[in-house]
Specification:
The chain contains 19 helices and 41 strands. The protein is an alpha+beta fold and 781 residues long. It folds into four domains: 93 residues, Sandwich (Immunoglobulin-like), CATH 2.60.40; 90 residues, Immunoglobulin-like, CATH 2.60.40; 228 residues, Spore Coat Polysaccharide Biosynthesis Protein SpsA, Chain A; 256 residues, Alpha-Beta Complex (Spore Coat Polysaccharide Biosynthesis Protein SpsA, Chain A), CATH 3.90.550. The strands form eleven sheets. Strands 18, 19, 20, 21, 22, 23, 24 and 25 form an eight-stranded mixed β-sheet that branches.
């Protein structure tokens, strides 16, 4: 008796409507057999049905009676999350049809009506949203209460709208409503565009209070309110109180700085510049520092930044010889009451500190921009010198610096960490706007910063080029270090979507060949023949393919790859990332030339041109969120952060370069608690906790399609998993979510970071760049 012919499946899967999938499945060698097919989305079983429906095209082809069809009718939630759909022959791990991307809508589906746009309540008086079809030269949003126009604001930012009509950039807005609404009563607001067309989400219901809930709890329950205070803190973290960036003077008037408990030792003040009017403004502001013992000198300067080191040395050795510390500022700087006192007290209270810096208002009038800074950010300091406009150093350190030729504020500051063993804990950030600094001559400031950064790198023995850039409020340079010679492995997790993977590989292949890098593709059970053909091509060109089937678990795929690669450095790339230009790889690798840098990532943009990832901020909604996704690519961002490299607490795993040894030392990505979301955040925080640095660079061109291969977390099964991962993040890193060292406590923890001021600041206590180890996650979570 001859053996039966092997199965020769013929199958098809299509999306035939907004909520319908249909197709057919049969075996050419057993046409009398009817199969049960299983529908899976991203590897997760969703539904089963019998493939025995009539298909006219099969009947016309004389395939028996043509009854091999099937259909699945799913909820909108099931399909809204995107991802990959595939059918399997039931009880057999065989996928007979090409998988179907649910991110692509059916051809006959019309785009959903976005109306005039969308509005959402962020918390207290703060609302935000976007306009779908703006009219006029300056699109705006209007808010009315009981028929009365309450507020209006321009749509002066951006929103990435990704619908069935394709990705596009639309105007976005953020708006703080008048204080009169903060009376504790619910309000029903009508929100429209400039033409009076209502936005989705309108009428909008909100309630705002005149006082912070934490203050009310303290007043009611005393100085140790316990659980009630914790609940109040959580409430304000989820519905943050904020103040508009457009009203800096109102915020300053609202949040005065308290004097320190103990008066600090005598202080020397170096005023850089000798214009009489500017010097007088600075001295008058010092007169308002009650209890401060100080002596000042104005040093000649052409740009209020550079000076002759001999002039400063003479002042330190003569008039300032009895002083404890040196405070340096440009002429015309006006200190806030108690600000200089606080800086001096912070240095006196930290014997190991080499430098203390404060936040600033930058500009020539009451609308000066308030710049709240992070805790010590070495990379940003090199490329922007952000803390060198209002800082304090021990008098002995100042004397050493002048003897070594420090001749500008930037060099006097960065000389304090010339030493290779200078710990980040030696640089202290004191939150609070310390002073208003006059607007800078950016050309002159860039020249001074360029020279100071180059001198600092030479002193440290770091091979690098320093290129002048253009900032909008602060100077900017680009530090390009010589990439390390360590071997590199590039890891790309994928499942089907050959089109995405092909574009990614085409964009990175030239750089990988020049570097001699290892390419490793981790295939998560692709069934698409086109993907299989592409993976065979990768293998034929010397790359490696690891097969890791099963439900999508990004952390597991990455861990599997790291265990198998040979490189000392590992670059993770999503299959929907496309790199532009020739220098992108050297830029990333150069960031790891610093031995303390454990990971590096890149600013990414959407196809619409809007920033998709500008670093990750820990804290909004007691979670972690991407920054600057309301800015167009090329925008400088808050405090010019999109113009210079910086050190956020985390960067996205879509483009993440890590040291393999460091990755393994912290246990890699957590595939049990963070299989899909927050695994990159958790990894970066673990690296920070062991003393490493995470760097973000904007100095390359990286396009990210943004979950095009996986979809958003909208399906019920995905939402359940997301909520579990969010709970785990809060359990392990709750302290960091409230005190992110890479984000200023003066800025609001709203859904859109860097768009509002915190009302009130979360802390005004001195802080260093330190992240404690995460807590164990409760087993019953």
């Amino acid at each position: 008796m001859s053996a039966p012919a092997p199965a020769e499946y013929c199958a098809r899967l299509d999306r035939v409507g907004p909520r319908a999938l249909a197709g057919y499945c049969y075996d050419r060698n057993r046409l009398s057999t009817r199969f049960v097919v299983e529908l899976r989305i991203d590897g997760i079983p969703i539904a089963w049905t019998r493939a025995d429906g009539f298909v006219e095209s099969l009947a016309q082809a004389a395939l028996e009676d043509g009854c091999y069809g099937f259909a699945f009718h799913l909820s909108a939630e099931m399909l809204s999350g995107g991802g990959q759909a595939q059918i399997m022959v039931a009880n057999i791990e065989v996928s007979p049809a090409r998988p179907l991307s649910l991110a692509v809508a059916p051809a006959d589906e019309t785009g959903r009506d976005e109306g005039a746009g969308h509005v959402r309540w962020i918390g207290q008086r703060h609302i935000a949203g976007w306009l779908a079809r703006p009219s006029g030269m300056t699109p705006e949003v209007r808010v009315s209460l009981d028929g009365r126009l309450l507020a209006r604001a321009p749509a002066d930012r951006w929103h990435h709208l990704d619908d069935v009509g394709g990705a596009r950039a639309v105007p976005g807005f953020t708006l703080h409503l008048p204080l009169e609404l903060a009376d504790g009563h619910e309000k029903r607001l009508v929100v429209t565009d400039g033409d009076g067309q209502p936005l989705r989400g309108s009428p909008l219901r909100l309630v705002a209070f005149p006082d912070a809930l934490t203050d009310l709890v303290s007043a009611r329950y005393g100085p140790e309110p316990g659980l009630a205070q914790w609940r109040a803190t959580m409430f304000e973290a989820l519905l943050p109180r904020s103040w508009p960036l457009t009203d800096p003077q109102g915020w300053l008037d609202r949040h005065a700085l308290a004097a320190p408990a103990q008066p600090p030792p005598p202080l020397a003040l170096a005023i850089i510049g000798t214009e009489p009017e500017a010097v007088e403004r600075t001295l008058q502001s010092l007169d308002r520092q009650d209890g401060l013992n100080w002596i000042a000198a104005a040093l000649p300067s052409a740009d209020r930044l550079g000076f002759a080191s001999e002039d400063l040395s003479v002042f330190l050795d003569r008039e300032a010889r009895q002083c404890h510390a040196l405070l340096c500022v440009p002429a015309g700087t006006e200190f806030r009451p108690n600000a200089a006192l606080r800086l001096a007290a912070a240095l006196a209270a930290t014997p190991t500190a080499r430098l203390v810096y404060g936040d600033i208002a930058l500009g020539d009038d009451a609308r000066a921009a308030l710049l709240g800074f992070p805790s010590f950010d070495y990379e940003r300091w090199l490329e922007q010198g952000y803390g060198a406009l209002a800082f304090l150093i021990p008098i002995a350190a100042a004397r050493d610096a002048t003897r070594l030729g420090a001749a500008s504020l930037f060099r006097l500051a960065n000389m304090q960490f010339d030493s290779r063993d200078a710990p980040s804990e030696a640089v202290v950030h004191l939150p609070g706007i310390a002073a208003r600094i006059p607007s800078l001559d950016l050309d002159a400031a860039t020249r001074q910063l360029h020279a100071a950064t180059r001198q600092h790198l030479v002193a440290r023995g770091i091979a690098a080029t320093v290129q002048a850039k253009r900032g909008s409020v602060l100077p900017a340079v680009h530090v390009a270090r010589t990439p390390p010679s360590a071997e590199l492995s590039v890891v790309i997790p994928t499942r089907d979507r050959a089109d995405l993977l092909r574009n990614c590989l085409d964009s990175i292949r030239p750089a990988l060949r020049r570097r001699g890098a290892e390419l490793v593709i981790v295939d998560n059970g692709s069934s698409d023949p086109a993907t299989h053909a592409l993976l065979e091509r990768v293998t034929g060109e010397g790359g490696r393919v690891l097969v890791e089937p099963g439900p999508f678990n990004y952390a597991r795929l990455c861990n599997r790859a790291v265990a198998a690669v040979r490189g000392d450095l590992v670059l993770f790339l999503n299959n929907d990332v496309v790199m532009g230009g020739e220098g992108w790889l050297d830029e990333l690798l150069g960031r790891l030339a610093e031995p303390t840098t454990q990971a590096a990532g890149a600013v990414l943009r959407w196809p619409s041109g809007i920033v998709q990832h500008g670093g990750i901020v820990c804290g909004p909604n007691l979670s972690a969120t991407h920054a600057f996704d309301d800015r167009f690519h090329g925008d400088p961002g808050y405090g010019d952060l999109l113009r210079v490299a910086s050190e956020p607490s985390a960067v996205t795993g879509a483009c993440l370069l890590v040291r393999r040894a460091a990755y393994l030392a912290v246990g890699g990505m957590d595939e049990a608690w963070f299989p899909v979301n927050f695994n990159d955040v958790d990894l970066c925080l673990k690296l920070l906790a062991r003393g490493g640095r995470v760097v973000l660079t904007p100095h390359l061109d990286a396009l990210h399609l943004g979950s095009a291969s996986r979809g958003a977390d909208r399906r019920p099964d995905q939402r359940h998993r997301y909520q579990r991962e969010l709970a785990a993040l809060r359990a392990r890193w709750g302290e960091v979510l409230q005190t992110d060292p890479g984000y200023s406590p003066l800025l609001a923890l709203s859904d859109d970071p860097y768009t509002a001021l915190a009302d009130a600041p979360r802390t005004l206590s001195a802080r260093t760049r330190r992240v404690g180890a995460g807590r164990p996650i409760p087993a019953g979570l």
